[in-house]
Hints:
The protein is α+β, with helices and mostly antiparallel strands. The protein has 3 domains: 3-153, Beta-Lactamase, CATH 3.30.450; 198-299, Helix Hairpins, CATH 1.10.287; 301-457, Histidine kinase-like ATPase, C-terminal domain (Heat Shock Protein 90, 2-Layer Sandwich). The chain is 58% helix and 20% strand. It has helices at residues 3-52, 64-74, 99-106, 148-183, 185-196, 213-262, 267-299, 309-326, 345-362, 391-396, 405-410, 416-426, 451-457; strands at residues 54-56, 59-61, 79-83, 89-92, 112-119, 122-133, 136-146, 305-308, 330-335, 340-343, 366-374, 377-384, 430-435, 441-448. Strand 6 (122-133) and strand 7 form a beta hairpin. The two termini are 56 Å apart. The relative contact order is 0.07.
Amino acid sequence: xxxxxxxxxxxxxxxxxxxxxxxxxxxxxxxxxxxxxxxxxxxxxxxxxxxxxxxxxxxxxxxxxxxxxxxxxxxxxxxxxxxxxxxxxxxxxxxxxxxxxxxxxxxxxxxxxxxxxxxxxxxxxxxxxxxxxxxxxxxxxxxxxxxxxxxxxxxxxxxxxxxxxxxxxxxxxxxxxxxxxxxxxxxxxxxxxxxxxxxxxxxxxxxxxxxxxxxxxxxxxxxxxxxxxxxxxxxxxxxxxxxxxxxxxxxxxxxxxxxxxxxxxxxxxxxxxxxxxxxxxxxxxxxxxxxxxxxxxxxxxxxxxxxxxxxxxxxxxxxxxxxxxxxxxxxxxxxxxxxxxxxxxxxxxxxxxxxxxxxxxxxxxxxxxxxxxxxxxxxxxxxxxxxxxxxxxxxxxxxxxxxxxxxxxxxxxxxxxxxxxxxxxxxxxxxxxxxxxxxxxxxxxxxxxxxxxxxxxx
Length: 458
């Protein structure tokens, strides 16, 4: 069953059930009101007949005028009987008397009572009143009327309401189907577009604006397609760039091998060829390692917890201390107060290591790692005294495989800053490149501060 059909039937059944429940409640209320009204009329009539009864010489006396007034008090539908001593009917409006009325008179107690009687197939409602004088009972008056009309009304009303519920339910099903068809039309369009979209063509968009649920769904779907298209574009670019970077050393290795095998050569010539091949293998190994780190930066699941950025900086700098000393570069850490962030310590270490690796290639005499907490963010800055970034590097330095002229001469993979930026963005932050005066470069990782700092600030 389609969603439209399920919605239509659900609305129709729900409406029919609601109508039936309303009908049952209404019918019960009306039934109770009718029976209460009938009991009240019977009580009033019984009291009126009781007031007409006169007692003389220890017996109830009813003259012709009393009989006329009794008939007027009972009206057209009610029946009544006046019993004297010994359950002897003195006045009665119908004959024979229902046996249930005689039983009710025998069981009567002082005062006025309302009772329900059963006479054959008929239900009777009755009011029973005693004729009392000076604490003594001289007779009983019973006034009754059939309540069959109420039962008939209940039955007819129930049938009408049931039919109305079914008819209205069917109407609601039809109308709901029409409304659902119109309301779900955008979803059918979404489905059609989603079916047409393939991995190699993500240019299609829903393009449905608006602030309603379907509008927000369409906008969310379009944003998802934007992200997928960008991800596939990055993947294609990454594959193309990786292939390009690997092709050059492989071509050199192939050439050196072909030349070495073309004819007999001296040991020195073979050694030179092997050294060239070894250098290219090292280059490939470095590139593959960088590619693995870049892949982890994109797909790794971060273990988010409060970590001290200053402590991460100290540990990372310690690992680079020997390499910096070998190049005659002074590397130090300037960490102020605790700078906690919500992040993955290993991932942040990789990001900072990638930046320090670039800084070691460019620095002349010093590298300074600064960690500062400013309001609701933490900044980790790596400052070197090298030549600084070119204008082109400032604009494209964090892009995958982008390399400036100096980086190409150094044999850089062009992945270091992009890896750091990917890790920072996975933490909700970013990497920014700037130059410092009079010369040098600053690479800053900006992260959100841990809530423990924000709570303390409050």
